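User: Can you fold this complex?
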Amino acid sequence: DAGITQSPRHKVTETGTPVTLRCHQTENHRYMYWYRQDPGHGLRLIHYSYGVKDTDKGEVSDGYSVSRSKTEDFLLTLESATSSQTSVYFCAIRGSVRGDEQFFGPGTRLTVL
Amino acid sequence: GESVGLHLPTLSVQEGDNSIINCAYSNSASDYFIWYKQESGKGPQFIIDIRSNMDKRQGQRVTVLLNKTVKHLSLQIAATQPGDSAVYFCAEGGATNKLIFGTGTLLAVQP
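Assistant: Here's the predicted assembly.
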């Protein structure tokens, strides 16, 4: 593994509750990404960060916010979870702008009832 | 984990045979491409990458071929083993900081 952990690994919550997922890296990589993975859709980018306090939206950012207050942590928040946000969430890191592959964490399975 | 394989195209091969997994990419401006392997319940794992100025690149038991004319990428796995059973994704990247992923192919290795 590339020094990426995600917490929690599994979570069940109810519609309307806030949820925060954490991604932690020990590689000191600049770029961090949050994806969701759903059957038939592959990996879709939610948000990404290109440095501390520097973030940008991906293709499915509605209903999600992120924060990066330090290099090693990238938080994904669902302010008010909905059933459509039931998914597996993956964090990834990348060392440089071009050419370096993204390394993925183990994933968080989130169920919103 | 297990739900990743649902609704995916499936390639079924016999153990010991060679496997070829194909991918069509979308952006002619993409200048590098990556293949990932994802086993059930795990995150995607890097296999091999290739730059757009190359047609072929080889790794251990794997070869990636790139045909820019038709925007096609393939992953060849030699002497496929049961441990190769997984979902395989291609991804394309370019000047942005982001990768675009394909939906994946499920490789099922029959003993």
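Chain A touches chain B at residues 31, 33, 37, 39-45, 48, 50, 58, 88, 90, 94, 97-99, 101-107, 109 (CB under 8 Å). The mean pLDDT of chain A is 92.
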